[in-house]
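Handout, section B. The chain below has 171 residues.
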Amino acid sequence: MLVLHVNDSTDDQVLFQTACRHAKVPFVWHVADSAEKALSYLRTLLEVSRLRSVSWPDLVLLDIVMPGESGLRVLEYMRATSGLKTLPVVVFTAEDDPKMIRKAQAMGANSYLLKPKQFHKTVQLVSSLYAAWSKSARPVVTESSGREATTVPRNTDRGPSSEIGGQQAEV
């Protein structure tokens, strides 16, 4: 399962990847350490997909509090771009402001999860994410020409319920 992890903190990236190893979750990672780099990566995928098959992320794990542009800019771009609209986005952040939670949900985040403070809870959360999203059918990603850009069947629903891992943010 390919995960695009957008997070400016190397510590958070390593912590999450270590939690995946402890949980024996087979995530394959592409990490972007800023919103700008995530946007560049997604634009490149769209451009290259016009010429050949690409490996689309199965899940975007998105921090929203970062220097420069907010992770919400990535979410906004994805939901406004036809080739990316259906990719699942889980906001994974320490930001627990109810206004921010509502904003991310209104912008189309599939789930909004708060970063656990204890490592064992992060391991549990990773297991829950994998259990929920690995069973979800991947949405079809199409090129601007309308031609399917991947041969892996994808589903256009919003994915699994956002009630996973026990860390769901309350609004």
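Note. Residues 27 and 113 are 18 Å apart (CA to CA). Compare this with the example in section A.
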